[in-house]
Structures are given as structure tokens and as C-alpha cells.
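Below: protein 1.
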Amino acid sequence: MPDSQALQGAATQTRHYDVDKLVLTPDDIDLSQSPLRGHIDPETYVLGAFNPGLLRLPNGNLLMMVRVAEALRQPIFDGHVHAIRWDDGRYVLDAWPLELADTADPRKFTLHGGGWKIMALTSLSWLLPVELTPDGLERVAIHYDKAVAPQNSLQCYGIEDARCSKVGDRWLMTTCSVSPERHCTTLYSSENGLDWTFEDIVLDHQNKDMLIFEGLINGEYWAQTRPLGDLYFAYPPGSEWRAGPSINLSTSKDGLYWKPYRNPGIRPHSGTVATARMGGGTPPTLTDDGWLALWHGVEPKEIVGIYRTYWSILDKDDPSQTVRTDHRPLLEANPDLTRPIDHLMYLRDVVFTTGIADGGDHYVVASGEADLACRITHIPKTLFI
């Protein structure tokens, strides 16, 4: 069992990188070109432009698939709190009596009176392709005409947190689609990395952070998944593992129909609260030593917690086996980066890594910073040896 004091200490060691910057903030988004324009009257704003999927285009440039959370400037009016919803090709507002709602979190509100947790969102998310230079550090173009927006009822509260993988000659993008029907994982495909076709639901209710491996293993597709629930069974006393959300694995013959893998994937260690909650970050990419997976661990704090990024190398032939890992955070929230947009901040201590691309002697790593902006970091490959 790992030494608990060593694990706790490792969680506080901050790394610094020579290339680390915000490349997109809410002020860079032109909402006059939003899919919502012309549908609702109240003013909206960009609550966050964050959690970007990342891929390399055929022209060598990088492309971020950015989650744009478009929110009502004043969600509360006329004694009600309002949510934006897609409804059969148009966007509408739903009004809920204020006395039924808890509005402490600016991103959502919780409704009282049910036998379980029920919430609605003050924003609706859609995906915006943003093209970057090959090093990921400068914007080349924002492709508003290629935006990915809700198109059926299972996405009526929005599309969130794209993860992009190239398998063979095809790009695959998993997203989280949100609705009262289900909170599920949906799949898109592309032949060029820019024009996306909706395929279908691939994982059902509250199975988040699905990351398709960038390559086949013994002829099959593999993916990391993260099913959520309200009940977890305890590990035996003295176990090195903590019960709770963990990163599972699934396999598929075609990338559309998935079977859970019987062995567990990456689990939270009992010796540290830094991974009391965890989930996948970047699609696993193949190295000489195995599959490199970046993932997030969450330390409880206030409403949201402290999000950090960690890494593991997984066995080439059986990704349920960890070759090596590091309990020190790879990335943490960087207040120096967000200081120029401090007036927009509504969360602290959150970095959520969602994309990776090969940069030669380093990886170009894309993250959402503070649920607000897109961050690009160059991380030396020698760090993972």
C-alpha cells in the first residue's frame, strides 16, 4: 500500500513549464455567429470557452473543438430562474419559480421537491472549431460555420467536453450530450477533422469522459469510460484503493457498439484525497512504453473541488495494467495565466485536460482552465520516462 503521507505530499508539488499560455478566452468569441442567434430575446454571454478536444489537421495545424457555454446574462427575472433548451430546431427558455430553485452555482440550479437531485443549466453548450498554428500557440481561424450544436432531443441542454481521437484514417469525437432523457456519451466522426457527422449514442446514462484510444489493440477499438452513480461498494480494510468513481475500460469491434472490459482501469488511491474523484482526460496515445493517459483527480474543496491533471502509462496489449504512474500533479490551475481575465472568474483551482498532440520532443496539451478558457502547455516527453 502506498505511503499516505508521501501521496499527500506529492499532490502539492507544482510543476512549471516554459510554454504555458491561454490561447482562447470568452472575450474572443463572437456570439453574433452563435447557433442561438435569432431564437431567444434575453442577452446571453460566454460563461466559458473551455475543455477543448484537440487534433492535428491534414494541413499540419492544430484544431481545438471548444466547448462554448452560452449563458443568460440575467437568468433570474419575473420571479423565475430560466434555462435555455433546444426544442425541435429552435431554442427556447424554460421558467422555474424561484422558490423551487437553489441558484448558488452560476452554472446551474437545483430544483427542490423531488426524491432525487434534479437540476437545470443556466447555459447551453455547443462546440466551436478553433484552428491553431502547428505549435498550438496562436489562432489561425475560428470556424463558426462548422460549429456542432444540438440536433435532437437527447441534446436539448447542450453538447459538452469533446475528446478527439484519430484511429486509422478517421477522426472520432466523443461528447457528453445533456437532456432530461439521459446524460449520455454521443459519437461524431469526420474524414477531415473539421466536418463532423453525428453517429449515435454510444454509452448511456451518466457515463462521462469517454476517451477512444488512438489506435487499435488486437484489431479492436478501446476506450476509457467513467460511469457515475450514487452508490459504491467498499474495498476491504487496508486496501490501497478508494471506493468511488474510477476510470473503466470498454472494447468495440466497430467503434459504435461497446462492451465493458472485465478488469478495472485506473482507480483512486486510498492514501490521498487528491483523487477522491477522478476521470479521463486525454485520449490515450501510443508511446514506446505503452499508452500515455492523462487524467484528472479531484480533491474535495467547497462546491467543485480542486482539479489537477495526472498521468499513467498503460500496457500496450492490456491497458488495465499500469506500467508506471506519478502521484505528483502534471498540471494544476495557474493563477498567473488567468490574472488578466480575473474579472470573469467564477471558479478557482480547476484545470481539466482534454486534448493531446505530438509536438516532436514534447506533447502539446490542451486544457480547460477554470471552466473559463483554453490553455495550451508544452510538456517534454522526457517527463514520462
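Below: protein 2.
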Amino acid sequence: MIFTNSIRSFVGIMTKRQLLLLSSSRVHGHEYLEFAQDDICDLLNLNKVSTILFIPYALKDHDAYVKTVEKPFKKWGFEVIGIHTTNPLEAVNKAEAIFIGGGNTFRLLKTLYDLNLVKAIRKRVTEQGIPYIGASAGTNVATVSINTTNDMPIVYPPSFKALELVPFNINPHYVDPDLNSTHKGETREERIMQYHEEDESYTVLGLREGSLLSVEGNVAILKGVTGARLFVKDKEPEEFKVGSNLSHLLKGN
């Protein structure tokens, strides 16, 4: 009975999460975050958010990064506060919503660990239900681990384990093999399959440019302007179109 109750408690906590996990913030033919404008504004307005806490740690110049992010959000009617301008832990604990942008995933995760923000963000999102928006590296750290990032390890976080807002991994900026290319290096698909050769590996959702995953509680829907490719260990990759229900991924491996 104790075990059953603990499972129910865990499921109850996770039903509070509200996530938008973008493959990227920039898409050809669109301004910064423009392709996801409707989904972002709907999420924030539904939660009566007026101020967004932006975490710019994936890039070195935090102030310049905030200026880039402020432009679309200001146009949409939201204020942006850079976490680096205040006490980071207090800012997370008071945040109405969190946005983590792209850049280097290793630098981002290391800084989150250095500032003791991993558990704090996880609690605010999964237990208290504040909206979380991630783009590229911000999407990578929302998953189980950053093992499937495309970035170079320019710094070393104490662990590859990330925020664990969802029980699988994502490969943002997923690129399909170019059959006409003369490049002989490994394709993205081959690299993901190499990851799956390891014992401790997770399902990987390859999000193409312009795709995003919307998660509300235990429901996950693929949105955006392009589809995604799903990699499950020991199975053939599977294609999913925009509008697909991917809620089964929230059950984990």
C-alpha cells in the first residue's frame, strides 16, 4: 500500500508540469521565437504570467543575451528578468515562469549545478507547476540527461544528469541524412544509435528545426512547423508529424 501511494503521489506531482520544449529559438523565415509565438503566449497568458525569469547561462555574455530575448517578449506584453542580475535561488523560488535559451549545454548545466539550481527548478516546475520554456540547450537540460546534445564539452558539469522534467532525452536541431552529400562522417541518426549501444540509455526524440514538444501534465503533443523522429533502443526509428500525441513517452523507458 505504501508503494502504491508513493506512485500515486509521483504521478500527481508530474501532472502539474507545463512545458514547451523547442528544438531551437531561430527558424528560417521567422524572427526569434516567432514560430512558437502562439504556444508561448497561450501558455503564459493561461497562467497569468507577467514576468519571465530568463536563464542565460548557455552563453557567455548574459546581458547581450537578455536583450535578444527581451525583444519578442516585450512585443508580446511580457517582462523579462535575467537571473544573473539577482540572487539566483531566490529568483527561481519566486519565478512566475522560467525560460532557458540555447547555447552550450555543458556550460549551462555546469552553472545550474554550481549555483544549486537543479533541484530548485525541478521542484518549481514539477511540484508547483510554473511554466517552463526551453530552447535548444534549454530543452536538453529539461530531459533526463544531456548525453544527446550536439554541443562540445567546453566545460565539465559534475554530472550529465539534468532537470528530469521528462523521462526521456531529446536531440534538438535533429538533421536527417543528406543522401546527396559527399560527407562521410556519422549522421545524427548513427550518433543516437551509438548512444543506445550503452546500457544506461534512454529513448531519444529528435526534434527538427521548427518543432516543439508541448507537455501538460501527462499529455505530450508535437507542435511547431516540422515533424520529429523517435529513437527507441532496439527498435527502428519512427516518424511523427505535427499534431502527434507522444504522451506514451512520459511513461519513461
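DSSP finds eight helices and eleven strands in the chain.
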